[in-house]
Amino acid sequence: MNALSVLNQRWVEAGYTRKPVAVHLLQLAAHVAFALGGTALYFLVPGLAAKVLGLLVSSYGMIGISTHAHTSSHNAIFDATLPNRALVHLGFPFLCGVSALYWWNKHVHVHHPTPNIIGLDDDVDLMPFFALTREEAARGGPLLKLWFRVQGIAIVPILALNCFNIQKTGWSYWVRTLRGPGAKRGAHALDLVLLLGHYAFWIGLPALFFPLGEVLLFYVVRMFLLGYGMFAVFAPAHFPARASFVSAEGETNRLAYKKSKDFILLQTATTVNFRTGPLGRLLCLGVEYQIEHHLFPGISHVHYPRLSVELKRFCEENGYPYRTLGWWEGILESIRAFRHLKPVEPRLEELRPQAEGQAA
Questions:
Q1: CA–CA distance, 308 with 295 (Å, rounded to integer)
Q2: Closest of 115, 94, 241, 224 to residue 170, by C-alpha
Q3: pLDDT category, 359, cuts 50, 70, 90?
Q4: How many CA atoms lie within 13 A of 27 on its CB side?
Q5: Whether this model's pTM surpasses 0.85
């Protein structure tokens, strides 16, 4: 029995595979309440302070909805697949305006099997707009190389457009796959209805009661805030220097690469955790425990704090990296990644630290 199977058996015995559905639904209800309550505060209470607070509270709720939908996309909220998929559709296309089909492909089918593997993981391929590796920065003409030298400063204001770009990329994926072979017309139709419902809910419905310009201003400013918020909860897991970028070693098939590697090393060498306080834990809903999540995505985030103690000990005893940053440290290191470009490690196996105990 391999090490991963041993760990999975241990989690079953510890009760970590149980899904605390009531807790999950209460967390989602809280974030929906924040999103709607902050919106109501913005529109119904006069004064600049109320509008700023309303935007912040609503943005907090929207980020929480996205991290909750992230958990659902891994079937970690319910035991059954159908209710998990329903929560993904509620969270991503309807409430956040991001194609569910795009999310499942980008995150579940592409990113998770090969995190930070250059040439296989699309999450770390930001070309031609941004370079993240030294090799990428060496490409192109003089103007592009000049841009790569200043992108570390430019990235801060540009992050405001982050969520608009995610929405746009999701729409592009929806159109491209609809025209491609094997398109699932029913899934595309559902995605489209919910995406259009997003704009009807957040723009059309409020515009019946408030000036359209004010509604659009709220939507756009909140999207700017969400751009920074989404970067803050997702980037610290894979962008800091301690989360290695690794060469695909000529492999073009993600599943083939995954099967040929030590899966635990693949995930732990390319991923780091970050620490949060109580509000951060409610906001992140487990994405701060990215090592645990990447190794065991089907386990509820509610169990990650206890599971992490055992997993950290296992990694230290068996020669696997296990790194945890402070949240602000992780955010700042993620921004620095655009200025201090990372090398691409030629082979994953070279990233294994010295084991303290017996090999797994």
A1: 11
A2: 94
A3: very low
A4: 29
A5: yes
